[in-house]
Amino acid sequence: MNPIHIVVAGATGRMGREAIRMIAGEAHFKLTGAVARTHTGEDIGEVIGIGAQEIPLTNSLGEALELGQPDVLVDFTTPSLVREHMELAIDAGVRPVVGTTGLTKAEMRELDERCRERGIGGIIAPNFAIGAVLMMVFAAKAAKYLPDVEIIEKHHDQKLDAPSGTALKTAELIFRERQEKKQGHPEEKEILEGARGGYRDGFRIHSVRLPGLVAHQEVLFGGPGQLLTLRHDSMNRESFMPGVKLAVEEVMKHTGLIYGLENVMDL
Ligand SMILES: NC(=O)C1=CN([C@@H]2O[C@H](COP(=O)(O)OP(=O)(O)OC[C@H]3O[C@@H](n4cnc5c(N)ncnc54)[C@H](OP(=O)(O)O)[C@@H]3O)[C@@H](O)[C@H]2O)C=CC1
Ligand SMILES: O=C(O)C1=N[C@H](C(=O)O)C[C@H](O)C1
Questions:
Q1: Is 239 touching ligand 1 by the criterion CB < 6 Å?
Q2: In the chain, fewer beta carbons within 10 Å around the N or the C end?
């Protein structure tokens, strides 16, 4: 079997370097390019401390696509860059596997069309941790029977977007399953603006940012005399790698853009 050739954008970042490590350890994956803003010309393996990989960093995804001829782009960059990266990749016939959060539904629809026109697959997963995917799917099931729900997501204080992509995706999955419902007291007033969190798809989402946290979420359900809490914790970024590996393998088999890892899992 030919290895799957992969370029990683955001290669020097917290997630990108973990992805490079994972790719280097898989016989059926081959790293062909590494993109970041800094360290241009330096070997990515040397920069992240895993030994030379013979792949110099570039600050241009276009250059990495042209030189490396990859099959797949793995993107862990920033909300402001990810759309441009996906367009570049798709136009070059390279399948995007994207963990970067912040794309709107309208942007995803356009990118889906672009993938279909090019006859290739793409995967956007707001969370690659298998446990987090299960939490989202279980939350949607629970909401059918316990429709009063709030989400609390907690992340490290370097995160750029709030709420998290995971919280937004959880809200979307729950919204599909439960009846429309007005929660809480109809005359409730916020004395301090933002105290009740953000409102999306019928629920409140609360975002906590603190040093020491990695990525955590609780989905709280309340009913008369009972509470159910679904909770997931990523203690490190290795936790996301089995999902990234699965997405790289699966993206080769599909056409069109898939949003959410649950869509390529047997659930
Ligand atoms: N789906 C999932 O499971 C997960 C998703 N994420 C998401 O992934 C994204 C990245 O997270 P994280 O790794 O923590 O972020 P980091 O800030 O650690 O890394 C960002 C990376 O993007 C690069 N970058 C930034 N600006 C540019 C630019 N202009 N040109 C080229 N490269 C650039 C940085 O390069 P440099 O270092 O040189 O500045 C760095 O390599 C976020 O959106 C986050 O929410 C995070 C964890 C899990
Ligand atoms: O920025 C992060 O760290 C994470 N981002 C993703 C999100 O926004 O949900 C996934 C995970 O929670 C870590």
A1: no
A2: N
